[in-house]
From TrEMBL:
Site residues by UniProt (Transition state stabilizer): 17, 28
Name of the protein: 2-C-methyl-D-erythritol 4-phosphate cytidylyltransferase
InterPro entries documented for this protein: IspD, IspD/TarI, IspD/TarI_cytidylyltransf_bact, ISPD_synthase_CS, Nucleotide-diphossugar_trans
GO molecular function: 2-C-methyl-D-erythritol 4-phosphate cytidylyltransferase activity
Alphabetical list of PANTHER family matching this protein: 2-C-METHYL-D-ERYTHRITOL 4-PHOSPHATE CYTIDYLYLTRANSFERASE, CHLOROPLASTIC (PTHR32125)
Length: 230
């Protein structure tokens, strides 16, 4: 039987960096880009690949917008599994879903509404067609010169060869991801992406080339850039 593929969008954050010095009070995932809330763009980018059978949008227990906003969207379910950090939100959600150990889960940021279908499909194709693979992630090569600083003074220049900027979606076997997230939590640590969790337990996800269009909306000016992209 073909293994199931579901997606999780952690959307419990307040997006404080994106709203800094702005008049917007809504969490950034609900702000409009090209006439629609950013969260909807991110959901629709996942729905573009029919192999994803369900999308779980994980929001905070206090969220009153998601269910109204997303009602009627095919394959989309809202769950109030959100924690105080992105790590906690993903861990809570992964531990709560009813799937088989060999099923696949895709984690995608609510703040990456420009995901090209070609990148998503390439990630899924690569993971499903490669034997004995733990999973993979989208990433783009570092093109800028990277500086390491101490208190805003350059300490040294980082060699950028073989450096990548991690993106989402990230796709893993559900059993491996659960094990990794719970192991980190038990250690009192956390990670900023799921690949780091797999790396923590000694597993090595593959990298699939992403896209600059798949940028993460983080700062106030990013909304203007994403508006032009979409």
């Amino acid at each position: 039987m073909e293994n199931s593929l579901i997606a999780i969008i952690p959307a419990a954050g307040a997006g404080t960096r994106a709203c800094k010095n702005s008049a917007h009070e809504l969490p950034k995932q609900y702000r409009n880009i090209a006439g629609k809330p950013m969260l909807i763009h991110s959901i629709m980018s996942l729905l573009a690949d029919s192999r994803i059978r369900q999308i779980i949008v994980s929001v905070s227990p206090q969220d009153t917008l998601a269910e109204k906003l997303l009602s009627g969207l095919s394959k989309v379910t809202v769950r109030k599994y959100g924690g105080s950090t992105r790590f906690e939100t993903v861990r809570n959600t992964v531990n709560s879903i009813d799937v088989f150990n060999n099923d696949w889960v895709i984690i995608h940021d609510a703040a990456r509404p420009g995901l090209p279908i070609s990148c998503l499909s390439s990630l899924i194709d690569k993971c499903l067609s490669t034997s004995n693979i733990v999973g993979g992630l989208l990433a783009i090569p570092v093109s800028n010169t990277i500086k390491k600083s101490i208190e805003n003074v350059v300490d040294f220049t980082v060699e950028r060869h073989n450096l990548w900027l991690a993106q989402t979606p990230q796709m893993f076997r559900i059993s491996s991801l659960c094990k990794a997230l719970n192991k980190i939590s038990d250690s009192g640590l956390f990670t900023t992406d799921e690949s780091s969790a797999l790396e923590f337990i000694g597993l090595k996800p593959i990298i699939v080339r992403g896209s600059l269009y798949n940028m993460k909306v983080t700062w106030p000016e990013d909304f203007d850039i994403m508006e032009k992209i979409i």
